[in-house]
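Dear support,

We are seeing what looks like truncated structure output for some complexes. This example has two components. We would appreciate it if you could run it in full and send us the complete token output so we can diff it against ours.
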Amino acid sequence: KAGVTQTPRYLIKTRGQQVTLSCSPISGHRSVSWYQQTPGQGLQFLFEYFSETQRNKGNFPGRFSGRQFSNSRSEMNVSTLELGDSALYLCASSLEGFWDEQYFGPGTRLTVT
Amino acid sequence: SQQGEEDPQALSIQEGENATMNCSYKTSINNLQWYRQNSGRGLVHLILIRSNEREKHSGRLRVTLDTSKKSSSLLITASRAADTASYFCATDAPGNQFYFGTGTSLTVIP
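Here is the complete output from our reference environment:
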């Protein structure tokens, strides 16, 4: 069974730009969650999508948004990038939700200059 | 913000020894999970323990949960060099929030 894939793996953007990250979950998994990892704040929950609906949301500003498609693939968008958005963005898929065993992708390393 | 705090922040042991790391959290939880992260395999789920369970085993891993103290421990027995990684506890709390702890960096010396 193929694992969770994320594209792109690395990205460099300029302050003020926007970025879209993509995540393909494991086949059959309906829940996709997104996390931000930084040295200062650690791993933080962004949001969770289930059956094309945002089911749960962490404490991030509205510049962070996402969506899920009918095939469970998910995208995450960050608008008006700030230097502090530089981070490793991880997505995870699971059968039922983040309370279940999650399978993580390799992450997208975003650098904002 | 972090719900969980892990202790110690860093741990260095010899191969074959046992490693114990602890996680304390702030609010009531539904479940607690442990994950491992290293550069080779990324973030990997290790074990899940529900709030009504006190102990769980999986191979060389033993997890305990004390909800009255809001704490959990992860024991890795007979450690190997391949166990070198960062270990995180993660909790899902009422209100549908999911939190990772600050992590313990484990180094196993061959």
